[in-house]
Amino acid sequence: MATLIRPVDPISDPSATKAAATKGISIMPRAQTSHPLDPLSAAEISVAVATVRAAGATPEVRDSVRFIEVVLVEPDKHVVALADAYFFPPFQPSLLPRTKGGPVIPSRLPPRQARLVVYNKRSNETSIWIVELSEVHAATRGGHHRGKVISSKVVPNVQPPMDAMEYAECEAVVKDFPPFREAMKKRGIEDMDLVMVDPWCVGYYSNADAPSRRLAKPLIFCRTESDCPMENGYARPVEGIHVLVDMQNMVVIEFEDRKLVPLPPADPLRNYTAGETRGGVDRSDVKPLQIIQPEGPSFRVNGNFIEWQKWNFRIGFTPREGLVIYSVAYVDGNRGRRPVAHRLSFVEMVVPYGDPNDPHYRKNAFDAGEDGLGKNAHSLKKGCDCLGYIKYFDAHFTNFTGGVETIENCVCLHEEDHGILWKHQDWRTGLAEVRRSRRLTVSFICTVANYEYGFFWHFYQDGKIEAEVKLTGILSLGALQPGETRKYGTTIAPGLYAPVHQHFFVARMDMAVDCKPGEAFNQVIEVNLKVEEPGKDNVHNNAFYAEEELLRSELQAMRDCNPLSARHWIVRNTRNVNRTGQLTGFKLVPGSNCLPLAGSEAKFLRRAAFLKHNLWVTPYAREEMYPGGEFPNQNPRVGEGLATWVKKNRPLEEADVVLWYVFGVTHVPRLEDWPVMPVERIGFMLMPHGFFNCSPAVDVPPSATDLDLKDNDIATKPIQNGIIAKL
Questions:
Q1: Is 367 a catalytic residue?
Q2: DSSP-derived secondary structure for 367-431
Q3: Catalytic pick from 209, 367, 371, 514?
Q4: Whose CB among 57, 321, 405, 521 lies 3.0–4.6 Å from 345's, allowing a Cys bridge?
Q5: What architecture (CATH level 2) is domain 164-271?
């Protein structure tokens, strides 16, 4: 039965409004409990797990089931449009095409579904399940559930990502292995509590790494007898010991003490906690910096829906990608809500090392596909880098055994001052106008073994979107023999060196520039700056111009950055124009970037063929989500994912386009990167290009007048010996 639904003014919940007012955040009234793009709740995850577990044929099968991930099945775009038009505020019926007699809308949205990646520890099989979720309440009673299995299938010849529980069990197994204990004793270590075992996926180098076995090759480190509560154990790598662990049966299957390399001496500069650095003396001259928003923030929050400075979007989160940004749009005056992108996320990252020696040549981590960026996210309760008024979002996951875990304060939403937005002073009149820039930042931070990665999406008042990754944490080190040096890295302390390596990230951007759901009216243009040839059109030899080329097909759209020609790419709507008659668009502006420095036959490139180009463009296909395929762990197949999909050479001249932007940084370690690395930032911009008729930032109001330093008593006091003198 279908019924005609007409939007009405929502009725506020007075109690919710009152509670929100005390915190300074504007809460918009909610129409239903779960938007189709909301991440699965803890209760929904429990129902999905219970449904799959109950489907096991025998108790033995049910006991052997392990849960890699449970995520939302994202609905078709037309379902999202239906929800945003008539079921959820701010109610945007313009998202749906007009029909004669008015729209006929179903009285309910389709049931939400969960997708489960399940590993059978007994059979070493990986399967994918789809479970339909009916009405789910906050608590489920003693084994009863409301889920329905829609489909299940075994995926042959794959290994799913590793899990933290497996890593912990692997560490215990290795430390309890008698030959390992004997090898450590030779190095002067008998206290196994000092030993750190970091399991790494083995990758794929030969048939010995085939996914018929679930394998890990740990790296070993050792703390000292220090009483520092957070001693940097990565400062003493243990080299020369080869360990291979069968993670299915949790047994050591290969062990060899190949070379006795002395443990590096305890570096007095190895620690980074307060009072433990650079001789134990911390800086004492850093004065407090407070960000105060007495009227609260400028953003409004309704569940996972965000509104700020004409931007609106939804926040999601997955165990693999971490933060996901959905339904990005800009409210542009009388032109209304204008879509920019359907879905933005970081879908993969690869960290290849440049040392050909064992064990470093095997260090080629696929941190999203082998581990999961979201599953390794921090609770920002334990330390947050954000300042000002912050709205946090929790994230829910399943653990390996099917229990639900919650990362509280996982995603951070806040505003930042960002310097000058624009300024001009008329030299004739002396009159000046200046505006400060403010940006809205959505972020999360994860730890993968020794490294930390912060992933940020910044929204600006001038219509820009910036994607940024911040790299920090601790270097992955190797040990040196006395007097030894290696050209494949930097010696950073006695007996310690850090190999050269690269970090690559893949941003997947399902674009929708001025496209309503269901429309496929985008194309991608490459722009290169060209120097005009000398001649009658360039008599002064100063001429250059922007040359555009339409990327007509997938194979043509395999592109690399070129800073010499200021290369960038524009996603244009083929049917919408601005006031000058030009097609509206958003352009992708690269930041600093690189390509793999490994040889073309490097083994890790079998699984990471997508690193060979900085930009790939594909037409939207629901199943094409991960550039190296869904299961890169021990993947024996060459070029799975993007490199295979584009061989279809599908047309792109007018399509629902997806951009895959690959960006990276080459890290030649410095002594200044030790013991903990200062943040390095890389990323790119999405900038409006003919999208607006003029600058959207001209209507930003002036900021409150800052304190004039001339009238600041402290600023005018004379300085004696570097100290402000008391007058």
A1: yes
A2: IIIII-TTTTBPPGGG-----SSEEEEEEEEE-TTS-EEEEEEEEEEEEEEEEEEEEEE-TTT--
A3: 367
A4: 321
A5: Roll (3.10)
